[in-house]
């Protein structure tokens, strides 16, 4: 009976000890348990087990709890963020959040990234006279009429437009001299341009031609009024009813247009000369080997006319395309402004273990992963912080700023990486000039930097030589630790 | 000027006990009369403050005596000077736990 009670007590003590051990931080658990088990063994022998030994074991909970609290306090102690990898990533994340927020607050940037403008119809070509430059608009309307009336093998739909600068009045108030594109009514459906607040029914009852205002002019002249549809404008000597606003960047044909007036072919002046947009049939697409094609058109009395057709499929360039192009250019230019190596490592036994090296690479990956969206959003912010009137100006600003930010950012990311201790990822500090430049061929000269954690020294050559071309890390073993011990160590 | 840490009476007693030759937890408990829930956490704190240091008994010795190896504690130089200061603060400390030298005097 006594032995059974003793076994029960022994089992209880063992369970208590194991339970208390769970409170101890994992790193100290094994040694802690070993000490308590040894002490309990001696207590059991000296006191013949029983209640006293069990009460002794209860003290293990207090001991374990104290260790746990101390470990938690150590963990909760504000981490020395200054110069740390965490501080760097935090700062980058803040910049990303701010630039993203600004991009979403800027209406111009918002509409530029709006997917409304992105989808465009494919298989479209712009047709112009071959004797003219690409931007010329010189096909007479009567030729278009005669040509489009014929049976077409390569085109299933054709539209005509011509441009003119006209004074525009809204309710007797002069809105300015706008660049107007007069077009056949099917131009927008042919191009696949979406229009916001399109309200064609509003103008169906009267004979007024439909007018579509550009996004930029809608914002500038009408203050982005959502009730614009249905207004009657005086365009030159004609009247037109606004039926909608063209989505931003939708117009990919040559020239900036402030508004489009869609009028029936009968109302078009015969002497107008402009450009033709056509949609290719399958046979027509098969003929488009390159971006342009030579076309022979037949007008009245079978007169031949040499024309050139330019594919419009590859001209859809948006902020994302510009950003990718800038990124590509920056990656090409990067080796020209900095070395892309991350530093030479000495093959010593103190080289960091592979988990540390993985963390170092992950840190670089995290920096680049944060940098790329920062560049995208900051370039958008710079390009669209104010309206430049044309999309081209914004495009150039975005392209240039994305390139510059990407190049500078990548260079910084690599430089920062090279100056971080491979063990603790803190920036090395306390630069000390070593040696004389004049003695390059006799002795090493350069700058020595130190990891504040005492893990490594970084040697950057002052003048790269064949025997010391790039920076080198010198890892310090544990015997150096006392020099770098923090004040709390004592 | 170095600032000497001020110990509580309990910590000073434990330090004095270790100095007096009670060099493992259970013996400190027996000498001071303090419970295990007080003595062992205090030993951890004193070790953290580098007033004492611990080491494991050689396994061969423990094996020869057919018992588990014990963890022994020893005063550091800082611990000795702190104990000196504590004795001045708690004059009865040495009488409560006399050292071998004090016993022979």
Describe the structure.
The complex is a heterodimer of chains A (490) and B (105). By secondary structure, chain A is α+β, with helices and mostly antiparallel strands. Chain A has helices at residues 2-21, 26-47, 50-76, 85-105, 107-112, 141-149, 187-191, 215-222, 282-287, 319-337, 354-384, 391-418, 481-484, and strands at residues 124-129, 139-140, 155-170, 173-183, 195-196, 210-213, 232-235, 238-246, 259-262, 273-280, 292-298, 304-311, 344-345, 429-434, 446-450, 456-461, 472-475. In chain A, a hairpin with a 2-residue loop joins strand 3 (155-170) and strand 4. Chain B is mostly helical and 105 residues long. Chain B has a single domain (9-92), classed as Winged helix-like DNA-binding domain superfamily/Winged helix DNA-binding domain (Arc Repressor Mutant, subunit A). Helices cover 57% and strands 10% of the residues of chain B. The longest helix of chain B is centred in the middle third of the chain and has 13 residues, at 36-48. Classes of the chains: A alpha+beta (490), B mainly alpha (105).
